[in-house]
Each structure stands twice: as structure tokens, then as C-alpha cells.
Design a protein that fits this description.
This protein has one domain (5-57). Helices cover 42% and strands 0% of the residues. The chain contains two helices and no strands. The longest helix is centred in the middle third of the chain and has 17 residues, at 14-30.
Length: 66
């Protein structure tokens, strides 16, 4: 097991997917958001959010629900 072992978590495609999630979590932290609340809010609202406004869900533009 080396430092790149996480790249193959489960399957060949799981590594890049895990990297995307880790990137979103770190970006949320860098923008001062709680990563758990950010992911929970985005994933819960994803089905009803319009596709043409998807950039609003990125960590640097996301606003927590009041």
C-alpha cells in the first residue's frame, strides 16, 4: 500500500470520483463552510435545482439555506 492506494478505492473509476468529492470538501473548507452541511444541502436540493444555474452550487458561490 502506497500513498496512491486511495486512487483505486473499489474500482478504477472510484479513485477519480473520490478525488472529486475530496476536492469539493476541501473547497468548502477553504470558503469557510462546514463540509458536511454543504454536501448535505447540495445533495438534497440537487434534484430540484435548475440545470442552467448549477454553478450556484459550487463552494465559492453557495449560500447556506436560512
Amino acid at each position: 500500500m502506497g500513498r496512491k492506494a486511495w486512487l483505486f478505492a473499489g474500482s478504477e473509476l472510484a479513485g477519480p470520483r473520490a478525488a472529486m468529492v475530496m476536492s469539493l470538501v476541501q473547497s468548502a473548507r477553504l470558503h469557510g463552510h462546514d463540509p458536511w452541511l454543504y454536501l448535505k444541502d447540495v445533495l438534497e436540493g440537487l434534484l430540484v435545482h435548475p440545470n442552467h444555474r448549477i454553478e450556484e452550487l459550487l463552494p465559492h458561490r453557495w449560500k447556506p439555506a436560512a
